[in-house]
Amino acid sequence: MKFYSLFFIFLSCLNLISQESKPVTNSNGLRFNKNDFFLESGLNFQYNKLNHEFGLGFGINKTIFQSRFSPEVFYVLKTNFKSQNKFNFQGLSSYHLNLFNVNRNDQEIHFFNELLVGFQLSYGEKYKVYIQPEAGIILESFHSDFYKKVENHLAFNYSAKIGFIYYVR
Predict the structure, then answer these.
(1) Distance between CA atoms of residues 24 and 16, nearest Å
(2) I want to staple 116 with a disulfide (CB 3.0 to 4.6 A). Which of 2, 24, 134, 147 is the partner?
């Protein structure tokens, strides 16, 4: 099921890149949620009034300080609510998939699926700074050795991201 999600995101990204579009922007940011700090980088494609962002990231605490790689892929769908001078206010929904190996001696991978809604407030023209608070749900999935089956745990989640955006083309 995870492979199909990643495959769908990959095909959607290729579809967006192949079409003529408005300028493509790159966004880089630092996102905090209750699991870790994530360093994220994404490409934004704008079509009509929708902005699609595809990106990659990694958990800073888990990757650097715990020496266990924690990659992340994400997709963000944004729409403009209000633009005035250099200020821009967008509503958004996002999906984040994070992989993490909890135990170094075991090959068990935990999947963290986040589905969040929130807004983005940005300031600037060619170079923008932004803040992006979000709230939603997180689903943790892993194979339990004790129960000999896949365990799923659903919980409330929150996220806050600060970063900057600049035009690629």
Answers:
(1) 10
(2) 134
How far is Cα 12 from Cα 34, in angstroms, rounded to an integer? 29
Phi, psi (deg, nearest 5) at residue 62: -70, -40
Nearest to 25 by CA among 45, 54, 47: 45
Closest CA to 45 of 34, 53, 37: 53
pLDDT tier, 138 (very low <50, low <70, confident <90, very high otherwise): very high
Q: For the chain, how big is the Rg over CA atoms in Å?
A: 17
Q: What global pTM score does this model have?
A: 0.80
DSSP 8: H
Question: What residue segments make up the domains of the chain, in order of their start?
Answer: 2-167
pLDDT at 147 over 80: no
Average pLDDT, integer, range 21-35: 84
State the Cα–Cα distance between residues 14 and 16, nearest whole angstrom: 5
Rounded CA-CA distance 148/152 in Å is 13
